[in-house]
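Sample log: Transketolase.
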Amino acid sequence: MTPEKQQKLEALALRVREHIVRLSTDGGCFTGASLSCADLLVYLYSDFLNVRPDNLTDPTRDYLFLSKGHDVPALYGTFVELGFMSKERLDQHLSTDDHIYWHPNRNVPGVEFHSGSLGHLPSVALGVAMDCRMRGQDNKVIVITGDGELNEGTVWESLLVASAHQVNNLTLVVDRNHFQANVATEDLIPLEPLAPKFEAFGCEVRRIDGHDFKQLEAAFSALPFSDTKPSVIICDTVRGRGLPSIEARADRWFCNFSADEVAELLRELHSQEATTLTSETLTVR
């Protein structure tokens, strides 16, 4: 990856994070989780996937399914920056006059499937990948899951089927930010060692830094990892990435900041100097 390309991706990811912060008020959103996968979505849509505003109904396009649907602010921000939707539409967040809310809705151009109930989209992506293969097409099919989402048995059931049918055009990407809601994954239901679990289910696995564009490019450009197995990319990430005041905090999963805090956090994105937050945190059990 050239320095110029890396700088372009980093600048794009910064703008996407700005959108996420702005959506974190007047009802709020899942800020911490969205910030952890912003770099991943930016790379996939701007550099890897054959998906553009002008080919959203083309059967030869690539597919991305955001199974961890609560990260949709990162998807919205990416769509705005790449021309899928207008920036002004984000002003309708949580309004009954639009479909911009806490989880993806197919009425938003570019969203392939509704998600929010965790664990379901790996199976949907598997079905699409098998359909593409049966039609003799080489579409890339990506599904992004959360790490806490891996506690859902349907994720593993879909991989068993993908492995049995050698669906090598399916790639499952794990946003491994080490939190599930307000609890560290390893304190709730430990996932490690994670890569061997996927390997035992018949997948070919790579593990990378999910914030490093060079590593993202190297991993995705090597797909498929096997001619006979589905691929898995575990992306180690940081919840709240880009905002030191909320990074790796269990209590900053869902955030509803005041307007003044949003202004301070936008400055924090650029300065990397943590601000003081006084808004209430949300605890889910």
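Observation: The radius of gyration is 18 Å.
Observation: The chain has a mean pLDDT of 95.
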